[in-house]
Amino acid sequence: MIKRLSPREKWMVLGGLGLVVLVLVWLVLLDPYMKALGNLDRRIAGHKRNLERIEQMQEEIGQLQKELAGINLRRKGAKPLFSQVESLTEQTGVRQQLLSIRPQPASVQGDYRQQLVEVRLEKLSLPQVVKLLHAVEYRSGGVQVKSLRIKPRFEDRSSLDVNMVLMSLEKP
């Protein structure tokens, strides 16, 4: 059948076959290969972003470990939580408004023991509450406010009753 075709027709058939072969090579080999390369490039970029996040987190963990080591050094010579809370109330001038300091049972979380103290104060002004919370946050060396409830008094709305639970972590 090909022998009956003219040379011009033979060239057209060969060109068509060549075109079909090129399309098949593209569809079967090159297109999947290019898609796979693009997919791998996207995965590499995603893994690079993950690696950068991991490196940032590693730096943060290192900083937190340094801070924790510093806190542990400060805590070694620190007083028990109960006496720390007493001295904080004296330093901030709210010792007279102190109703009770009640230690809670200690619990162990991982490598640390958590100490809790419930503190009840009455007839505080807002500046006194702020001063006490600031002292707990910045002067106490590892003591944190775990829970805080502030209610205005019924007879004098400018006075506040404060119930809070303070927490400290230490290595046993």
What does this 3D model show about the protein?
- With 172 residues, the chain is an alpha+beta fold.
- Strands 1-2-4-3 form a four-stranded antiparallel β-sheet.
- 9% of the residues are buried.
- The chain has helices at residues 7-76, 81-92, 126-139; strands at residues 98-109, 112-124, 143-152, 160-170.
- It folds into two domains: 2-74; 79-170, Ribosomal protein S6/Translation elongation factor EF1B (Alpha-Beta Plaits, 2-Layer Sandwich), CATH 3.30.70.
- It is 56% helix and 27% strand.
- The protein is built from three helices and four strands, in the order H-H-E-E-H-E-E.
- The chain is rod-shaped and about 120 Å long.
Q: Which structural traits does this protein have?
A:
3 helices; 172 residues; four-stranded antiparallel sheet; rod-shaped; alpha+beta; Alpha-Beta Plaits
